[in-house]
Description:
Order of helices and strands: HHHHHHHHHHHHHHHHH
Number of strands: 0
Pfam families: SQS_PSY (PF00494)
Number of helices: 17
Radius of gyration: 20 Å
Shape: globular
InterPro entries: Isoprenoid_synthase_dom_sf, Squ/phyt_synthse, Squalene/phytoene_synthase_CS, Trans_IPPS_bact-type, Trans_IPPS_HH
Family: Belongs to the phytoene/squalene synthase family.
Keywords: Carotenoid biosynthesis, Isoprene biosynthesis, Membrane, Transferase, Transmembrane, Transmembrane helix
Structural class: mainly alpha
Helix content: 55-70%
Strand content: under 5%
CATH topology: Farnesyl Diphosphate Synthase
Largest sheet: none
Distance between the termini: 25 Å
Number of domains: 1
EC number: 2.5.1.32
Amino acid sequence: MCSMYSVAVKPCIRVSNGKCPSRKSIIARAEVTVAPQHSTTRIFPLLSKDGIPLADLHVQEIIERQSQHNILAREDPCKKPRFHPTFLEEAYEKCRNICAEYAKTFYLGTLLMTEERQKAIWAIYVWCRRTDELVDGPNAGYLSSAALDRWEERLQEIFDGRPYDILDAALTDTVFKFPLDIKPFRDMIEGMRMDTRKSCYENFQELYLYCYYVAGTVGLMSVPVMGIAPESLVSAQSIYNAALYLGIGNQLTNILRDVGEDALRGRVYLPQDELGQFGLCANDVLSMKVTDRWREFMKEQITRARFYFNLAEEGASQLDKASRWPVWSSLLLYRMILDAIENNDYDNLTKRAYVGRSKKLLMLPLAYTRSLSTRKVFL
């Protein structure tokens, strides 16, 4: 499910009646571009141009708070929990094992980080994974709004220095060591709530907002731990924006990779108005038939995902040198998934785009090479 700086979970869009959505005209303001159009020049929406301004997401507030060192310890030193070293060691070891099992490529990348940063990233990864499994795990069918409310209460207790279990304790220790703000964590939980309420994404603006909640937030959580390179001349705002864009790109790639599997469960997560632009509808997805119209539609969706990966590159190259490898590994791996969809002739309805273990391992040296430079490189 997750890979750090890229925890990308999937929205739960259920098509109850299988009917094609009506083709609504796209109302576009001068500064807003909602969807890819049939033209030789593609203009894709940035976060500040797609109807979801940065100010509305309060990202700047998060950046300002997370730029303060030891924020929790300074506000109230009495809150800082005291754990026995052996207990903490066990807590982080459990987090490490989970990350190594479920995010193998990313985990290998974390091994170059400092020990303190490794542990923090593993703790954040585990919390994000547990959050995702509330709505997408084996017990998701029993999820209630009360369960999400309780999970948010547990989050507050983590930040108050009162963890509920040993895995929570690892995150508690992390938030008292690094300037992590609680809002990105709360926003991720809000994304899970959207998952239980929303059954359709009419356009990319709606889908983008969801992607921010469930994936872009991970970038906000990760930057303070990974650190910004001392020699970087890029603004913190730009680096945080890049972290958001990588999350968006990864989330979109997950959606494109899993279209067929999700259709078998009656789920479709594609912008309905954009399907209509290509003469398609939800029924066409559920029918699992790959047509020329589908291929053209998928080309546009893949182009958009790559657009966000390109935006993410500058931030990936401006992180602390010891933290770049896992980020570049994630970025290159997800690009390879898009390549695999193309190699399958855009058949993501009956085939799953797969990147084999050998290809992943061969990609790691390239990711490492990219991580050595602060130069922005578009692939």
